[in-house]
Amino acid sequence: MTENLKSPLEDVASCCSVPEYHDPVGRDDAPFHPGDMLDGRFLITEVLSHSGMGCIFKAEDTHNQNALVAVKVPHLEYESDPGFFSRFQREERIGLELNHPFILKYVAVEGQKSRPYLVTEYLSGCTLAHLLQATRPLPEKDALKIASLMCDALQYMHAHGIIHRDLKPQNVMICRDRSIRIMDFGIARDDRSRRITRVGNTPVMGTPDYMAPEQVKGQRADKRTDIYNLGAVLYEMLTGAIPFPNENPWAALNSRITGDPLAPRKANPDLSPQAEEIVLRTLQRNPAERYASAAAMKAELDTVGQVRVTGLCDRLQEPAAWKPGFFQRPVVLAVTLLSPVLIGMVIMLLVLLRQRAGP
Question: Is the separation of the CB atoms in 227 and 291 below 8 Å?
Answer without folding.
Answer: yes
